[in-house]
């Protein structure tokens, strides 16, 4: 049996706000000022990309091969964009949504962000409203967007925690997420290089995004996978490009060295079969409605204990998804997780005789209890 977990204090990170979580379990491993509202700079484009990914999957009128007419506002030569990152699109030309998505993610193009915003919502202001609606749905409680690219505005802000939540959501769109690992992109004969330099230094890093303005400092949201464990880091307000990379590497090293994540149960897997009274079936399968991951100190897996607390009496009719108990997972006596046990299938009422018999048995059973 493994000895007690010995974990050093988290590393000191030179940044305005930062966070380290496990992508699958959501476990917060390290945090500081994670709920402080800060300017996100080009980290904004994580949401711009997310909205596009969401529409590509859910809106039949949005397709990767859609041709987008580039407006004056989205033109790379727009004075608002002077000195900022660009895809280098030209006014009056048509560019596919697929190419613009690459321009947002790989080139960090402010021009591409505006072009997509106008195409999807009619205007950048309307698109910002859509961004805020998605933020609300995702539970990003301290986030507000006013544009699609992240150039400074007093009412444009987010937090390290909210960005980690957004990164988790982006991971659910694997085709779009694959763009974040691309090292470079060429459009209009101009080659731009991904500013996430950790992609070139750490083979476990495969995303996500950098950001920088004088107001925001140097920011970086990163996702890295080693073996079966994926971590997400958020570093906001570092002092330089090298500093945001160095501080991110500190967080990743700490998380991967001292913690591990285990997938305990699959969504929909049968964890227990329970008696059903008065039903057309005598048995009910119970399980959990989502995949259950647990992040724990390294080497402590043999100390995990799972207990199923199932309702004593379950009567038909039973509706699929209804809660009939609880899964409790603990480690060394500390409860780490409490998850509802749900019916994995519906059970209709049985015939008249079965219902009457169940009523009689349960009546006498109740008498014995009291």
Walkthrough of the structure:
This protein has 370 residues and is an alpha+beta fold. Helix content is 29%, strand content 28%. It is built from nine helices and 16 strands. The protein has helices at residues 44-58, 97-105, 110-121, 124-138, 160-170, 174-177, 198-201, 241-258, 352-369; strands at residues 17-22, 28-32, 67-69, 94-96, 184-187, 190-193, 205-213, 217-226, 229-238, 259-265, 272-275, 283-287, 292-297, 304-310, 323-331, 334-343. It has a five-stranded antiparallel sheet with strand order 2-1-9-8-7, sandwiched between helices. Helix 1 packs parallel to helix 3 and helix 2 crosses helix 3 (110-121). The radius of gyration is 25 Å and the shape is globular. 42% of the residues are buried. The mean pLDDT is 92.
Number of helices: 9
Instruction: Please trace the helix and strand order, writing H or E for each element.
Output: EEHEEHHHHHEEHEEEHEEEEEEEH
Beta content comes to: 25-35%
Task: Kindly report how far apart the N and C termini lie.
Answer: 44 Å
Spans of at least 5 consecutive residues with low confidence: none
Helix content: 25-40%
Summed over residues and divided by their number, the pLDDT gives a mean of: 92
Q: How would a crystallographer describe the biggest sheet?
A: 5 strands, antiparallel
| Spatial extent as radius of gyration | 25 Å
Oligomer: single chain
Tell me, what's the shape?
A: globular
Find the structural class using helix and strand composition.
alpha+beta
């Amino acid at each position: 049996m493994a000895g007690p977990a010995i974990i050093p204090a988290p590393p000191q990170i030179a940044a305005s706000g930062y966070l380290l979580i496990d992508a699958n379990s959501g476990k917060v491993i390290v945090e500081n000022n994670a709920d402080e509202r800060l300017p996100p700079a080009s980290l904004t484009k994580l949401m711009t990309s997310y909205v596009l990914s969401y529409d590509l999957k859910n809106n039949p009128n949005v397709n990767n091969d859609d041709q987008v007419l580039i407006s004056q506002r989205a033109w790379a030569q727009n004075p608002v964009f002077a000195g900022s990152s660009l895809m280098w699109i030209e006014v009056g030309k048509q560019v596919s949504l697929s190419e613009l998505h690459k321009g947002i993610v790989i080139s960090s193009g402010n021009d591409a962000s505006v072009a997509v915003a106008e195409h999807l919502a009619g205007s950048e202001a309307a698109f910002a409203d859509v961004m805020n609606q998605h933020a609300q749905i995702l539970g990003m409680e301290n986030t507000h967007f006013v544009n699609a690219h992240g150039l400074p505005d007093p009412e444009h802000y987010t937090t390290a925690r909210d960005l980690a939540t957004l990164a988790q959501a982006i991971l659910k769109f694997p085709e779009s997420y694959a763009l974040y690992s691309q090292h470079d992109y060429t459009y209009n004969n101009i080659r731009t290089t991904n500013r996430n330099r950790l992609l070139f230094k750490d083979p476990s890093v495969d995303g996500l995004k950098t950001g920088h303005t004088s107001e925001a400092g140097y920011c970086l949201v990163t996702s890295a996978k080693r073996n079966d464990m994926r971590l997400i880091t958020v570093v906001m307000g570092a002092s330089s490009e090298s500093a945001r990379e160095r501080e991110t590497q500190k967080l990743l090293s700490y998380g991967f060295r001292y913690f591990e994540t285990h997938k305990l149960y699959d969504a929909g897997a049968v964890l227990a079969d329970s008696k059903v009274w008065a039903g057309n079936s005598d048995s009910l399968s119970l399980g959990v409605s989502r995949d259950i991951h647990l992040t724990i100190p390294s080497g402590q897996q043999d100390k995990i204990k799972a207990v199923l607390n199932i309702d004593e009496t379950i009567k038909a009719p039973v509706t699929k998804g209804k809660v009939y108990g609880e899964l409790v997972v603990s480690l060394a006596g500390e409860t780490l997780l409490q998850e509802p046990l749900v019916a994995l299938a519906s059970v209709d009422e049985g015939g008249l005789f079965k219902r009457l018999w169940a009523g009689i048995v349960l009546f006498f059973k109740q008498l014995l209890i009291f």
